[in-house]
Recover the amino acids of this structure.
């Protein structure tokens, strides 16, 4: 093996193992065919391209490694995550997070309605045909967008800002994904991916919201001290969440899953930011929730690095 | 359809089946040396086109100890490329017609 071939094979290690098993020999052949006679090292442009597309394939961006692929790979799991999130919210009677006090006598009404719409949307997405998917999700996202003004108009308590933002985020990939990425995933992988997406998104959203100062905004956004109360509760989770995520990431590094570990560690950055501020002591319940989130994040990593069916079937058809 | 995809499909349309390196060479020739497809970009595009059913694998062979996998346009791919070619031809025709109609403004 020449120095150049060795260098190319090392670069290709950025791609996941299943991809290399199918394509490494072919890609190395193409790279060597295209090399200059006395070339000993890959060109920087060639190397950057391989690293970029390899990383995109590894994180489950799907065929092409493009933004479209990312949206396509994430849309269904995110939608299932929205459904699970809404189910948890319904089970807890609209109060999914401890310590958040309700405002007004009928404050708990809008959020459960919104949760109901989302459970319905996620269920319909699983059982109906693909061509209806975008319409169903669009209705659910629309319901999320108008929930706050509607709550004000009819004089009910607003849903939590985080709830509304999270639900819109869950639906956005489905609305933005291009048509060619529409395909039916296995229900089991959608569920695992959905739970994982929920965990990662929640950890990032909690941290970002808490550190952005959104909760301290006066008037309409803060909703009479309602959202700051929620964020104070979230702040209590941060030290343990950070530790748990970093501990799992360290374990993955030992297990040779450095890229996955990097992703996981990166998702703890918002928690680290919020840790800088003073937070009340976390309870046993929050500790348990954080552990659960870490477990789900690991499932996420396992789920996204799996071989997509299209790639497997496409090359051996 | 973006330029690299257009050129990859055009390359495959004229040659029956091509392996990865041959596709990059044909694309370079078609673009007058302007577009040099790198391996990462090429295989990302091929993965996507295979997933969409526009391109299909067309056999493998080992040449000089190196594995070559061949690709060709599928029936659907021929239809997609044909439609895109007609669209581009119509646009080009329109541009030429407008230029011819207003020679003094160039």
């Amino acid at each position: 093996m020449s120095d150049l071939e060795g260098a190319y094979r090392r670069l290709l290690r950025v791609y996941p193992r299943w991809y290399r098993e199918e394509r490494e020999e072919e890609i190395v052949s193409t790279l060597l065919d295209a090399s200059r006679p006395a070339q000993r090292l890959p060109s920087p442009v060639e190397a950057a391209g391989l690293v970029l597309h390899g990383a995109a394939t590894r994180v489950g961006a799907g065929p092409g490694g493009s933004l479209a692929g990312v949206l396509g790979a994430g849309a269904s799991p995110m939608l299932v995550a929205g459904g699970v999130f809404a189910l948890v919210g319904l089970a807890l009677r609209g109060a999914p997070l401890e310590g958040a006090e309700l405002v007004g006598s009928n404050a708990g009404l809008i959020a459960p309605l919104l949760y109901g719409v989302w459970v319905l949307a996620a269920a319909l997405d699983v059982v109906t045909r693909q061509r209806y998917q975008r319409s169903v999700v669009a209705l659910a996202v629309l319901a999320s967008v108008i929930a706050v003004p509607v709550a004000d108009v009819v004089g009910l308590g607003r849903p939590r800002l985080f709830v509304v933002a999270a639900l819109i985020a869950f639906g956005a990939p489905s609305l933005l994904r291009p048509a060619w990425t529409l395909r039916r995933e296995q229900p089991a992988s959608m569920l695992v991916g959905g739970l994982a997406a929920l965990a990662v998104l929640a950890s990032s959203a909690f941290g970002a919201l808490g550190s952005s100062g959104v909760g301290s905004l006066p008037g309409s956004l803060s909703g009479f001290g309602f959202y700051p109360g929620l964020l104070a509760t979230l702040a209590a989770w941060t030290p343990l969440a950070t530790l748990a995520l970093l501990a799992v990431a360290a374990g993955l590094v030992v297990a040779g899953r450095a890229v996955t570990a990097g992703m996981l560690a990166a998702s703890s950055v918002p928690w680290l930011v919020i840790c800088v501020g003073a937070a009340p002591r976390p309870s046993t319940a929050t500790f348990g929730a954080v552990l659960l989130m870490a477990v789900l994040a690991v499932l996420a990593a396992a789920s996204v690095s799996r071989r997509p069916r299209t790639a497997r079937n496409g090359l051996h058809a | 359809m973006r330029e690299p995809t257009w050129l990859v499909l055009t390359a495959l349309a004229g040659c029956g089946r091509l392996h990865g390196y041959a596709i990059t060479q044909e694309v370079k020739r078609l673009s007058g040396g302007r577009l040099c497809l790198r391996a990462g970009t090429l295989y990302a595009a091929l993965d996507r086109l295979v997933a969409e059913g526009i391109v299909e694998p067309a056999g493998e062979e080992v040449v000089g100890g190196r594995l070559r996998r061949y690709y060709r346009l599928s029936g659907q791919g021929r239809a997609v490329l044909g439609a895109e070619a007609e669209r581009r031809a119509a646009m080009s025709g329109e541009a030429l017609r407008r230029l011819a109609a207003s020679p003094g403004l160039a």
Notes: The beta strands of chain B are 18-19, 55-63, 66-73. DSSP finds four helices and three strands in chain B.
